Inverse folding.
């Protein structure tokens, strides 16, 4: 399956601590958000699937292994990586959780729930979900923010903003954000899941590209495009 036919989801959260239970919380949340999903296989360094049971998916050192659903025809994977202080925005180490899913009708229908489960389960600052065909182009549009968490670095098709992140970028202002609010929903912790377009983002679609550009214009702090004072 090509990268273009995948939905790529990433959330950025506080770094893991020893015994941190968030990896398993995120995995359970994804399984509940996507009916029938079971992330019960760990991918070894030799790229072989190893069957896991329950809490075995939670590593003793708190790390987040590469897990999959064990289905090569319909692959779903998730893993957590650490961005060290020297490379992280604001010089704060981050846990980056990356998931890849097949971009089909079932996933599109559940995408908001999956992203929300990842963001809330990880207690993330921000996150996004974007088709692989558009994800690289979007990432290249902006440079890392200098403000650091909780300011998002760039926009995606779906965006998860914690309450602090939403406040940092100026969302929401009803007089300015009526269109976005029509495609947004509140999370249990007071954050937001914001959809830029009804369908998966396609940058060859002028309507989608216009929606993306308008969102960047509305939130200049995203991408570090506001010079810190």
């Amino acid at each position: 399956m090509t990268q273009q036919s995948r939905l790529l989801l990433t959330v950025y959260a506080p770094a893991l601590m020893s015994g941190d239970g968030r990896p398993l919380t995120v995995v359970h949340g994804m399984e509940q958000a996507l009916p029938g999903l079971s992330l019960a296989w760990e991918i070894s360094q030799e790229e072989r699937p190893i069957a896991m049971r329950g809490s075995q998916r939670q590593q003793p050192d708190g790390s987040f292994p590469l897990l999959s659903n064990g289905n090569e025809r319909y692959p779903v994977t998730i893993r957590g990586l650490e961005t060290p202080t020297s490379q992280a925005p604001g010089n704060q180490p981050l846990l980056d959780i990356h998931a890849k899913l097949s971009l089909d009708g079932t996933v599109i229908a559940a995408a908001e729930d999956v992203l929300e489960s990842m963001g809330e389960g990880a207690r993330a600052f921000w996150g996004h979900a974007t088709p692989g065909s558009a994800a690289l182009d979007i990432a290249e549009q902006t440079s890392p923010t200098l403000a650091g968490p909780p300011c998002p670095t760039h926009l995606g098709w779906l965006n998860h903003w914690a309450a602090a992140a939403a406040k940092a970028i100026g969302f929401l202002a009803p007089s300015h954000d009526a269109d976005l609010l029509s495609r947004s929903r509140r999370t249990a912790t007071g954050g937001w899941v914001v959809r830029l377009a009804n369908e998966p983002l396609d940058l060859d679609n002028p309507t989608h590209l216009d929606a993306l550009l308008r969102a960047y214009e509305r939130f200049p702090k995203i991408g570090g495009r506001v010079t810190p004072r």
